[in-house]
Design goal:
The protein is of the alpha/beta class. It is built from ten helices and eight strands.
């Protein structure tokens, strides 16, 4: 084999260095883009989570919905309101879609519910919606082989009505995994900063993948709780899809659950770092599963590099 010249080696080094930049971020690099200040901003400023707010039957319900729709649109997602009927009225899930590059590669969904029990609902479940918004903000900056769908569901508190309507209407879609983020921010004085619950069917590969992502990207150890038909993942399971619920470790002892004190104004209640780590883990799972696509510039650079090396060897 003919040895490479020093010039060839230098050209190859330059090309590979340039291509590594053009290839875009790795999954761990994407996860680091999840920002606590950004998450906190969504929770405090966009979702009406302060004392006296009401996203159940109050005026803040529609205002929050409009903010979510506007934010999805600002991220460049294909954004829509998906209507459904309940108790004689029309309600809407807010949907943002990041199309994949391969229409045969299926889709992954992350969702949370923006309605509340006539209270500010800071933890239940604006905390999850803020996570979906930050996930959409970060992941929309990249291209993936599979489609990513971000959904803010309505009327979860009346029995997962919005998610049931969506899951039924899309039962024929190739949904490969669905993660519901419901109550991800309550952590009593940092007690459970490194623990969370995962609920779903034990035989789902999704459960193992989320356990791994929680550990790798969030520094969180998951406790597996089995099947639990009490949040927006359940209707997807009923329609034969892999789905799971990610929820805080102290959910069953949350003293402000469904109360007027479920607000960002309650002292030592919302743990923003904990919720951000839960979001990082979910983003890591989605980025790994959907498969990030290299930027076109990388392919071009590699091609040019190959031609340059061929010319040097002739």
């Amino acid at each position: 084999m003919k040895p490479k010249s020093n010039m060839s080696i230098r050209v190859m080094g330059i090309v590979l260095a340039m291509a590594s930049v053009a290839l875009g971020a790795t999954v761990p690099e994407i996860v680091t883009m999840v920002d606590q200040a950004s998450y906190s901003g969504y929770l405090n400023d966009s979702l009406y989570t302060h004392t006296g707010d009401n996203r159940g039957g109050g005026a803040q319900h529609d205002l929050a919905r409009n903010n979510i729709q506007s934010l999805f649109g600002s991220f460049g997602l294909q954004t829509s309101l998906s209507s459904f009927a309940y108790a004689g009225s029309t309600y809407y899930n807010v949907v943002g879609v990041l199309p994949g590059t391969d229409p045969t590669a299926g889709e992954y969904i992350v969702g949370a519910h923006y309605d509340s029990v006539n209270n500010p609902g800071a933890d239940d479940d604006a905390s999850g919606v803020a996570g979906v918004l930050e996930a959409a903000n970060v992941l929309s900056k990249y291209q993936f082989k599979s489609t990513l769908v971000f959904i803010a569901f309505d009327r979860e508190e009346q029995g997962m009505v919005g998610s049931s309507a969506y899951a039924s209407a899309h039962s024929g879609d190739d949904i490969l995994g669905m993660v519901a983020m419901d109550m991800i921010a309550y952590n009593p004085v940092g007690t459970y900063h490194d623990k969370a619950w995962l609920y779903g069917h034990e035989n789902y590969p999704l459960i193992q993948d989320m356990e791994s992502a929680l550990s790798t990207y969030g520094g969180i150890t998951a406790s597996f709780g089995g099947a639990l038909d009490r949040s927006d993942h359940a209707p997807f399971e009923w329609n034969g899809k892999q789905a799971c619920l990610l929820i805080e470790q102290a959910v069953w002892s949350n003293p402000y659950y469904h109360s007027a004190n479920d607000t960002v104004d309650t002292l030592n209640y919302i743990d923003y770092q904990y919720a951000t780590n839960m979001t990082r883990a979910t983003v890591g799972y989605l980025a790994e599963s959907a498969v990030i696509i290299p930027e076109p510039a990388a392919i071009c650079l590699l091609g040019l590099g190959g031609m340059a090396l061929l010319r040097k060897r002739k």
